[in-house]
Amino acid sequence: MSGTLRIEAVADPADCFALRRKVFIEEQGFSEADEWDALDAGAVHLLARLDGVALGTARLLDEGADGRIGRICVLAPARGTGLGAALVREGIAQLAARGHRRIVLGAQVQAMGFYEGLGFTTSGPEYDGGGVPHREMALVLPL
């Protein structure tokens, strides 16, 4: 990946929502009802830009002692470039800075290898997430 990559929390998540619509609703076929929920209002939204172009997003949530990374998506042309891994690593760093030592996520089964490569392990049974098989995964950070 060449160029200047910036990943930061944004106050206005409009670009994040546009990316989620493109990837989850238009590309993957999730319904509006499955994609949008009340958790967006209290979440931290990360936006990844390469040379100023919005290419990826993730949502960070506090769940008691756990931190959750969710709604992770990268536009198709940027997949396989390392942008997604950088986005998840930034999410982990921001959640760790908030005091979380266990980071959880709900992974589409087809993407579990990606998260395993970042240190996540399976932590729950398979479940249906909007018609797509998912599994809970967790990463325990060292003290």
TrEMBL record:
InterPro entries: Acyl_CoA_acyltransferase (IPR016181), Bact_Acetyltransf (IPR050832), GNAT_dom (IPR000182). Residues 3-142 form the N-acetyltransferase domain. Keywords: Acyltransferase, Transferase. GO terms for molecular function: acyltransferase activity, transferring groups other than amino-acyl groups. It comes from the Bacteria. The keyword Acyltransferase applies. PANTHER family: ACETYLTRANSFERASE, AMINOALKYLPHOSPHONATE N-ACETYLTRANSFERASE-RELATED-RELATED. This is GNAT family N-acetyltransferase. It comes from Pseudooceanicola albus.
